[in-house]
UniProtKB/TrEMBL annotation, chain B:
Lineage of origin: Bacteria, Pseudomonadati, Bacteroidota, Cytophagia, Cytophagales
Top-level taxon of the source organism: Bacteria
The name this protein goes by in its record: EboA domain-containing protein
InterPro entries: EboA_dom
Length: 313, 299
């Protein structure tokens, strides 16, 4: 299968902080669906209303914006680990979460877990695991940047303690040091491909060569920092170039994400298999993705470039 | 303070029967379980979860209503018309009607939480349920907010086939509702109470709007003259003459209907000058609902 014909899912990307140009290039590169986990915004929120509006925007404006480029947008809802440390606010967020977790297109509770591994983080992580279990949703775990290996193992151990089955847990931001424990525990092991940090795409190729494709997922985590929304298709392209069979690439860059988050019952292949009918004349609460003088795309969003033009060597 | 605008118990029974007839046994079982849970006083979580999750368990099929059921709805609450409701919307409304309402603050708190975190499908259910909810006076500002939305389905839920706005909105908000319906090209004949709530200010605003459209070389929906007719005066007559002079028959018909609503002598005279149209109005062959349906494809 030629790379430009492949479909990809990026199961972890923060589109709130990306532009429509990203959406256009992602669509051209074969990304058909994305999952946007709730996360912090680069600086802490100070009022509960900010959380409420953020969650609403993930389900509203951002979903609409993605649809304008033929991309299906889902999200996970949760209180992130960094902001769990503001306990007064965290309490209020916990009251808000039940209003959002079962809305249409919410495919998990996430991203939750540890950052500094404080007592407050532990408390709200556990409360959210209970919530996920109660509503039968998958859990998307953010593993810490510092003291990563211990933090990852702890995240999984605590999830088990709360009676969450490993197949309902997607452990994000894995690396060579954590992958074995994650897979051995029966969890989904997701890898974030960042330029210059976390996981490079050449290292990702080696991991797939070594561990195979079962329960391994590739994502970009692209956000407001130095990151790349085309990480998934680029990694796929490199895998093919390095001799990984197309079917294996399909598993780690598409199917596994669908299987893992599809357990929510809120994400089905049929959601995007129809040719995307884009109508950029549409508006969401009077806002358009277009700016003055631009011609709306109506009908099928056509690929303009071949994937290779999107690859930065 | 008015607590009820419709009998909550009867509304619930009526909608429940409709729901049951239009969905599967599994969906009904699911809803039965949730309705029971929502009745408890400390059941906010159960309510929020069931309200969000309803479509995945009960589907989104449009209800098939019989004529007798439509009449029954209207008896239950004048103007209540669930003919375009879906199964998920009906389930959501049943949940709302099962929330304990003895404690007003508690009840309103739950409703406010649902409104302020709702996505599109949820907003449709919430706004369309307004004519059945207790404490109707407390939802005036919500309804006015619903009119400001630019989400088409949400706007329709509040503006069309819904008796709440005509019964509770103040004049400013009501006029905005009518003007916006014209503005976004939705059918006026589906606004409940349009004639009863017509007023001179609305007539003036609609006339100004028509002038703006004409200045830009655009047409005006013939339905626009329906709330204007009863308030015709020397100034508005100039508009009606212009509409009569329009080459399209539907525009002339609208002008004639507007004149027929007026006691203003020049309006009566103008209608006399168009005996064929006058006759059609008198026999009932020509009326505003006919104009509304006929102009719908253009909307």
């Amino acid at each position: 299968m030629a790379p430009e014909k492949m479909m990809f899912i990026d199961p972890h990307i923060h589109m709130t902080s990306r532009t429509t140009d990203d959406y256009a290039r992602m669509q051209e590169a074969g990304i058909v669906a994305i999952i946007e986990p709730s996360f912090w915004l680069g600086q802490p929120r100070t009022e509960i209303g900010s959380f409420k509006d953020y969650f609403s925007s993930l389900l509203g404006w951002e979903r609409f914006r993605a649809s304008q480029f033929g991309i299906k947008h889902y999200c996970t809802i949760g209180l992130n680990s960094k902001e769990a440390n503001n306990e007064a606010l965290a309490e209020q967020v916990m009251e808000l979460l039940p209003l959002f977790v079962l809305k249409e297109g919410v495919v998990g509770v996430g991203e939750i877990g540890y950052d500094d591994q404080t007592a407050a983080e532990d408390k709200y992580y556990r409360l959210q695991l209970d919530l996920a279990k109660e509503v039968g949703l998958p859990v998307q775990i953010h593993t810490p940047h510092r003291d990563k290996k211990a933090g990852t193992i702890r995240s999984m151990k605590v999830a088990m303690e709360h009676g969450i089955k490993p197949h309902m847990v997607i452990v994000d931001h894995n690396n060579e040091e954590t992958v074995k424990d994650t897979l051995d525990g029966g969890f989904w092991a997701a890898f974030t491909i960042y330029p210059n940090s976390k996981m490079g795409n050449e290292r990702m190729v080696e991991i797939v060569k070594q561990y195979g494709t079962e329960r391994i997922i590739v994502n970009s985590s692209a956000d407001w920092g130095v990151s790349d929304p085309l990480s998934v298709p680029k990694t796929a392209s490199l895998m093919l170039e390095r001799g990984i069979p197309a079917e294996d690439v399909r598993m780690v860059c598409y199917q596994n994400a669908l299987d893992a988050f599809g357990q929510s019952g809120q994400m089905n292949e049929s959601d995007w298999l129809q040719p995307a009918n884009v109508d950029q004349r549409d508006k969401f609460q009077d806002n358009s993705v277009l700016r003055g003088g631009q011609t709306p795309v109506v009908g099928e969003f056509k690929t303009r470039n071949e994937l290779k033009e999107n690859i930065v060597k | 303070m008015q607590v009820f605008q419709a009998d909550v118990e009867k509304s619930r029974d009526f909608l429940y029967e409709l729901f049951k007839r239009n969905t599967s046994d599994e969906a009904t079982d699911w809803l039965n379980d949730k309705l029971e849970k929502v009745k408890g006083a400390n059941s906010a979580r159960e309510l929020y979860w069931a309200f969000s999750a309803a479509p995945r368990f009960v589907g989104k099929t449009v209800l098939q209503l019989q004529e007798s059921e439509l009449s029954k709805a209207d008896v239950l609450r004048p103007g209540f018309n669930p003919s375009k409701w879906t199964t998920d919307q009906t389930a959501r409304t049943l949940l709302l009607l099962s929330i304990p309402h003895q404690d007003q603050n508690e009840f309103l708190h739950k409703l406010n939480q649902l409104f302020s975190t709702a996505e599109m499908g949820e907003l449709v259910a919430l706004y369309a349920s307004l004519p059945l909810l207790p404490y109707p006076g407390d939802f005036k500002l919500r309804a006015a907010e619903g009119i400001r939305t630019n989400m088409g389905t949400v706007f329709e839920a509040i503006a069309l086939d819904n008796p709440y706005p005509a019964d509770y909105l103040d004049e400013g908000a009501w006029n905005q509702l009518v003007l916006k319906t014209v503005f976004v090209g939705k059918p006026l004949y589906r606004i409940y109470g349009l004639e009863i709530r017509s007023n001179p200010t609305l007539a003036r605003i609609l006339s100004d709007y028509a002038h703006e459209r004409w200045a830009a070389g655009r047409t005006v929906t013939p339905e626009l003259w329906r709330p204007v007719g009863p308030f015709l005066n020397a100034f508005l007559m100039e508009d009606i003459k212009r509409v009569f002079a329009h080459p399209e028959q539907i525009q002339q018909e609208a002008a004639a209907l507007a004149c027929s609503q007026s006691n203003f002598i020049p309006a009566k005279e103008l209608l006399e000058a168009h005996p064929v149209l006058k006759n059609k109005i008198e026999t009932g062959e020509l009326n505003w609902n006919y104009i509304g349906r006929k102009s719908l494809p253009a909307n």
